[in-house]
């Protein structure tokens, strides 16, 4: 008898807080026979798997080459062909700066069915933890997500067209920003972004080990080193002082309207 091929689930684990897992992600982790996870997925989430589940760390954090992407693809395909329920568990959202595209290609080439389960991505998790909105119809009408990680360490931001993303009406979210903030500062200032643009660096968003530091574009090179995973947010919607002032003005306007009735 031919073994039925199982579907592979490509699942987002979110920023690490198990309370931020989707209900579907929790169910799939509990039902998995094989769980292939990134380095950044914490033990508290892996503990949701059953004792029968084969759990393997297939992460490549900090440039580690312990396992290649081709090997990850092969493990997914082989387990699915054996009729095992495979969960490929990505940190954050698998579609945001992960290797989802490569894994989709490999599964399609092998004729393996798959599903994608999105997760809370680090940028929105960091904003939520800070108590700010990524967009604000009064000052930030768009979110632009870029990666600071490049294969060439000497020029980590060289491949980005900063004139396209350095917009006063946008919140800029830089994933894997590294530590070369002087170069990023020069790129964004050169592209015309105001030196007074608020900036916040957040590490381990939503987790007990979360760290954060605030600056402006002019002073981001003074931000302290923070452990991965970290994101850098820049934009006027992050300005807490301005937001509070706007709220006070709106409240005064409402009071004037009410008093005139």
Describe the SSE topology.
Blueprint (H helix, E strand, L loop, with lengths): L7 E5 L10 H9 L2 E4 L5 H4 L7 E4 L11 H13 L4 E5 L9 H10 L4 E4 L4 H9 L11 E6 L14 H4 L4 E6 L5 H10 L7 E6 L7 E6 L13 E5 L5 H21 L1
Parallel strand pairs: 1-4, 1-5, 2-3, 2-4, 6-7
Antiparallel strand pairs: 7-10, 8-9, 8-10
Summarize the structure in words:
The protein folds into two domains: 8-117, 3-Layer(aba) Sandwich (Cobalt-precorrin-4 Transmethylase, domain 1); 122-241, 2-Layer Sandwich (Methyltransferase, Cobalt-precorrin-4 Transmethylase, Domain 2), CATH 3.30.950. The strands form two sheets. Strands 3-2-4-1-5 form a five-stranded parallel β-sheet, with helices on both faces. The protein has 261 residues and is α/β, with parallel strands linked by helices. The model has no long low-confidence stretch (mean pLDDT 88). It has eight helices and ten strands. Helix 3 (69-81) crosses helix 4. The chain is elongated, with a radius of gyration of 21 Å.
CATH H level, superfamily name of the largest domain: Tetrapyrrole methylase, C-terminal domain
What is the fold named in CATH at topology level of the largest domain?
Methyltransferase, Cobalt-precorrin-4 Transmethylase, Domain 2
- What's the main sheet like? 5 strands, parallel
* Overall 3D shape: elongated
Kindly provide the radius of gyration, computed on alpha-carbon positions and rounded to a whole number of angstroms: 21 Å
List the uncertain runs.
none
Number of domains: 2
Number of strands: 10
CATH classification class of the largest domain: Alpha Beta
Report strand order across the widest sheet.
Answer: 3-2-4-1-5
